[in-house]
Every structure is written in structure tokens, then in C-alpha cells.
Specification:
single chain; mainly alpha; Arc Repressor Mutant, subunit A; 2 domains; 3-stranded antiparallel beta sheet; 9 helices
Length: 203
């Protein structure tokens, strides 16, 4: 059983939320005295003891859209059940907790250890790019040479680039996908992952 002092605090909180509601409903041109009159009418003949969120929500016809957008936590809406509201609140809490855990993991994550080839390629991929385009771009790059310092032959270059892109995808720095070409073949495309690149200094 709530004490009279606690009931009075809740009453005042709901009164403030009513003002927010009526300011929203009346629009930007609403006069303070108009809002005050609307709030007074909603509270008329109501004692603190019977001033529940359900009775108030029913009296003012509060919808879920209004309740959610205005964050009216102490007035019940008329178009959603208690069970639905409880599950929605729990789902949002789970989503918020999951996002917080992801941020925490990201903050504690260490930068991936990349090969020289991967470091060279990641700096060049700033937008969605095909593997063929990257092969042409790095055809005579110092990172793509054999043990004798000779630039890789076409077949070896394709294998090396494929392995490099797989390394970057596994590190979370690139998103990889394939698409069919006009010749009926599959072409590999890679896209940067901006948040991860920025976090580890590869932006």
C-alpha cells in the first residue's frame, strides 16, 4: 500500500505528463492556459487514491503511439494490453543490453594482426569493389611478389588476392559476396565495414 506522500508524488508526475500530452495534441500554437485547462478537466473530481494510470489513460484516450513517442511512463494507453506492453518493454531491454554488450566487446577487442598483403589491400578498399578490379590495381604491387621478388603470374595473383580478401573478411574488416556476371560466372565483391575500420585505424 502506497503512502499518501508517495501517491502525491505519483499524482504530480502524471500531471506533468498530462501537460506534455496536451501540449503535443494542441500543437506549437498551444497557449499555457489552454493546456492548464485541459489538464484540470482531466483531473477534475479525482482524488489521489483513485488516480490510477488506467483510469487516466481511458479518460484522455491515450494511444500507444502517443505514450511511446512522448515517453509517458505513468499513463496507460487504451489500445495495447498489459501483456503486450510488458513484452515490448522486455524486448527493448534485451535489445539495449545486447547493444551494450557489443559495445563493450568492441572496446576491449584487439586490432586484428594482418599480413602485409592484407594491410595493403584494406587501405585501398573504400567502397564496394570487385576482386578483378583489385587484381588489376595490385598487379605490380610490392606486396604481391614471389620469394624471388618477381611479380606474381595471373593465376598465382588470383589465388593470392582471394586468400587476402578471405583474411580481411574473417577479421571483420570487409564484407564479401558474389554476383553473377554477364558471362554466367560468379564475381566476388567486397565492401568495407566502416565501424570496424575506424575502430582499428584502417579508415
Amino acid at each position: 500500500m502506497l503512502r499518501s506522500k508517495d501517491l502525491e508524488v505519483i499524482f504530480q508526475l502524471r500531471e506533468r505528463q498530462l501537460r506534455k500530452l496536451f501540449f503535443s495534441r494542441l500543437g506549437e500554437r498551444a497557449k499555457p492556459y489552454e493546456v492548464t485547462a485541459a489538464v484540470s478537466l482531466a483531473l477534475e473530481h479525482r482524488s489521489v487514491a483513485d488516480f490510477t494510470s488506467e483510469t487516466l489513460g481511458l479518460q484522455v484516450g491515450l494511444t500507444w503511439t502517443e505514450k511511446d513517442s512522448l515517453n509517458l511512463t505513468h499513463i496507460a494507453c487504451i489500445d495495447r494490453s498489459r501483456e503486450w506492453l510488458k513484452e515490448t518493454k522486455a524486448a527493448r531491454r534485451r535489445k539495449k543490453d545486447a547493444a551494450r554488450k557489443r559495445r563493450k566487446r568492441a572496446q576491449s577487442a584487439k586490432p586484428p594482426s594482418l599480413s602485409p598483403r592484407a594491410r595493403a589491400v584494406i587501405s585501398a578498399v573504400t567502397e564496394t569493389t570487385s576482386m578483378s578490379a583489385l587484381i588489376r590495381k595490385f598487379d605490380e604491387h610490392e606486396a604481391f611478389v614471389d620469394p624471388d621478388g618477381v611479380f606474381l603470374a595471373p593465376a598465382a595473383m588470383r589465388v593470392a588476392m582471394s586468400r587476402t580478401l578471405t583474411e580481411l573478411s574473417r577479421a571483420g574488416l570487409l564484407a564479401s559476396q558474389t554476383r553473377p556476371t554477364d558471362r554466367g560466372l560468379l564475381e566476388r565483391l567486397v565492401s568495407p565495414v566502416p565501424d570496424v575500420r575506424t575502430q582499428f585505424g584502417y579508415a
